[in-house]
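Exercise 7b. Backbone tokens:
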């Protein structure tokens, strides 16, 4: 069999394959004889029909069967002969002009592992940014716990800034209530930055049991497109006004959280947790720097099929998280999503290839001790018995993913240990940023 390999792209190859006429003829003879043994032709006993009659009647079916047998065999032999490792199934470049009595010639296109010349993955310049935890950080955490454990008490007074209201809202059009925009017992936080101006002004100073009309003017860039730029009048019934009552931050507050004997003990635990979180964040950032620099220093073309597979999976994950609504204009925009995540996908795929090249070059391995330790940590983090953790992992068939995770961690650690790492202590307060939300009916 003749095989000629030509390079289309760094990750594409065209295989020109020719099966000699002798082999083709042998396969035709074999299939014709098989048909002769099996088919029934009126006037002849089974298996006794003349071969020429079989050839005349079943030429088209036999030709198809011969192709079905020869093509995969020839392709597999050609791949082995050329020492190629295909990433995808072969694609026929053109229609096959196949006739009995002639050699079988065809061309297939395959994608292979990209050609990688691994370089510059040692001696990187890295910066480990560690946030220094201060009393300010601890106080922010205490304030968060105080707010989280606050109680809401109903009050019989006018609503003021910071209160919570329980409200029924109905859209009014021409004096009539529109049922499609109606909510009951909606809890609204009365904060200026949290509401449209008309709602804030309308609710401020209102009392329980009061009814009023509010005309809301929605901005043109409002996130709900069916409301953007519209002016809508609502009928509002204020059912309750609730005041947030914050507990004093003292020893009793700490004890109320269940596991602390004093405020000092709570503060100590908060600081320890924040320092651990700061260290984890620094290590994650360091790993991101490693991946970014290695990918930038080792550019190569990524096979289209792998990028498309990555983006297909990403789109499917988004659809599962945000199911399609045929009546909504806020469904997942697949084209936009694919374009948005294309560069991330390219970077991730390149890193996967580069990581495994480093594994081969540096002979990095995952041992049984590595996986056992990972499972133990998983069990501890999820409050599971070791046996339960192992059963869960076996059930989910995640052991391969675990080994890949450990392997990636080992490669990153290897690169860090062979790079220059400069520590930077950051003294700015570490505050959790919360998204401001406009609460509307």
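Sequence design result:
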């Amino acid at each position: 069999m003749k095989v000629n390999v030509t390079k289309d792209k760094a990750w594409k190859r065209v295989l020109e394959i020719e099966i000699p006429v002798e082999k083709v003829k042998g396969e035709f003879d074999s299939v014709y004889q098989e048909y002769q043994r099996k088919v029934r032709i009126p006037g002849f006993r089974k298996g006794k029909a003349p071969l020429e009659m079989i050839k005349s009647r079943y030429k088209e079916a036999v030709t198809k069967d011969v192709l079905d047998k020869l093509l995969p065999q020839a392709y597999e032999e050609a791949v082995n002969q050329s020492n190629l490792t295909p990433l995808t199934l072969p694609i026929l470049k053109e229609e096959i002009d196949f006739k009995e009595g002639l050699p079988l010639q065809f061309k297939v296109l395959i994608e292979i592992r990209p050609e990688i010349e691994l370089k510059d993955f040692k001696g990187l310049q890295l910066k480990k940014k560690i946030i220094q935890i201060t009393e300010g950080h601890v106080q922010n955490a205490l304030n968060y716990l105080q707010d989280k454990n606050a109680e809401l008490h109903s009050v019989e007074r006018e609503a003021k800034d910071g209160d919570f209201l329980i409200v029924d809202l109905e859209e009014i059009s021409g004096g009539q209530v529109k049922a499609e925009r109606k909510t009951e017992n909606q809890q609204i936080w009365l904060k200026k930055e949290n509401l449209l101006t008309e709602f804030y002004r309308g609710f401020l100073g209102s009392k329980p049991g009061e009814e009023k009309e509010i005309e809301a003017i929605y901005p043109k860039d409002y996130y709900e497109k069916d409301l953007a730029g519209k002016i809508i009048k609502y009928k509002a019934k204020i059912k309750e006004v609730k005041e947030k009552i914050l507990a004093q931050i003292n020893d009793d507050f700490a004890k109320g959280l269940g596991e602390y004997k004093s405020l000092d003990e709570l503060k100590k635990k908060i600081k320890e947790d924040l320092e651990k979180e700061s260290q984890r964040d620094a290590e994650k950032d360091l790993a991101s720097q490693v991946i970014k620099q290695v990918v930038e220093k080792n550019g190569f073309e990524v096979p289209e099929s792998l990028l498309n597979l990555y983006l297909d999976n990403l789109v499917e994950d988004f659809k599962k998280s945000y199911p399609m609504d045929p009546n909504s204009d806020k469904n997942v925009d697949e084209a936009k999503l694919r374009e948005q995540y294309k560069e991330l996908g390219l970077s991730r795929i390149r890193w996967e290839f580069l990581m495994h090249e480093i594994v081969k070059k540096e002979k990095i391995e995952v041992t049984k001790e590595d996986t056992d330790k990972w499972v133990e940590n998983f069990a501890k983090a999820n409050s599971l018995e070791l046996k339960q953790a192992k059963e869960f992992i076996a059930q989910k068939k995640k052991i391969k993913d675990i080994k890949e995770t450990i392997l990636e961690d080992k490669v990153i650690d290897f690169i860090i240990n062979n790079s220059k790492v400069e520590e930077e202590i950051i003294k700015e307060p570490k505050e959790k940023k919360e998204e401001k939300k406009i609460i509307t009916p």
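Instructor comment: The first helix runs from residue 21 to 38. Residues 430-441 have pLDDT under 50 and may be disordered.
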